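User: Predict the structure for this protein chain, please.
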Amino acid sequence: MTDLEKPRSDRAAQAWPSIVKWDFGQSRQSFRLALSLRTTIIVYCCLTVGGVFLGRNWPVIESRLGLWEFGDAFRAWLHPIAWTRGDKSFIRGEREIRARHFTEALSAYEDALAAFGEAGIEKRQADALVRIGFSEYGRGHYDDARTAFRKALQRYAQIDNPLGRSNAWLGVGEVERLLEHDDAARTAYREAARFASLSQQSLASGNAHLGIGRIEARSGREEDAKAAYREALTSFELAKNLSGQASAWASLGDLHRRHGRADAAHEADEKALALYQKADDRLGQATTLYGIGEFATEQRRDDEARIAYRSALSLFSLIGERSGQANTLIRLGEIERSNGNDEKAGVYFRNALALFEQIDSRRGGAGSLHALGTIEARSGREAEARSAFREALTLFEQSGDRLWQAIALNDLGASEARSGRKSEARAAFLAAAMRFDEAGKKDRADAARKSAAGLEQITPRRRR
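Assistant: Here is the predicted structure, written as structure tokens:
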């Protein structure tokens, strides 16, 4: 999961002396920081401030100070058991999400959300919703992830928390980028950058500009992408975040590769890998190698791609990152399939499917099933192909991925047509066209409608 901006504990300790002196101007910023921490200082501040204001005109004081944090502190003082239960669940979720155990993390964060709701602590509820969003994202449940991020945005807006809004908008951007909704993703990342600037937090700014750069790169806007990556790199350097710096260099390397600057790309990749190694970030190293493999695949340099993917797979396996392992197996399978090695490709795809099922990744499982369906179709096993495409479609629908729903429907329609099932084929092609339209792929939608209209020209293929 992306490192999210968090205030620092050494500054949080400033809260207590200024509260004792009733110096609210001095304590305002430091108390904001203290209340976002999961350490003993937050318990101390919550209990103390709750005691200080007990029996006073709380709404008037809170309104005059403009500090929603004091309200949360008082509610924590009134509900210590629920607050403690929520805090423990949140910490458990952080541990699980760092280990990439997204289902377990989701359960922990949902427990935290319920407990913080019982205590009436708005900010912690919003924090839990952001983590729920990233857990759902990790599981491939993109509609659920988007919903959680949107709920968090509403709560953060109510308490005027710009850092929280930046983190939530970042989550929305990640979902929309993966679903190839580039305009929506660009808007979300820009909002994340705007609120990061308002909160003056460098790590949040780096994350947002990294997302902007990736969208601009995919849209062919090289200079805009380069500027965004440079801004991200500067922000990560200010935050002293080595993994973020490495991500920015890796993205610059990818940009150089796509524009034919092999030497510059190699230099950027070397800087990224060195920074990841310095940070002891094996996941980052694996992700960089995976990206190198992707580009080599696009350039049809299959041997080079295999080497990069196998190196990435080794690192993913070493740290137990099953999602990374599965995605890398899919890529290796695609290389074999493109070279006509369907049997070997099928082994890769089935192994990937097993891993995706272990982590309850609907999107990953759907992709594996779709890949298996293409092999079955190419071998003339149309019944098996249709079964795989239908299973994939169900999972794509559950994940909310409109584009891949359309692709699965289109391939299902082609299989139905080859089997002489024209009515079923027509329905699948028209449904695919509708999904392509929803995904903003007009050319592909028109092609699907053309396929539906041209069914009379298709001769059924005999089953082998």
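Residues 7-31, 37-44, 46-68 have pLDDT under 50 and may be disordered.
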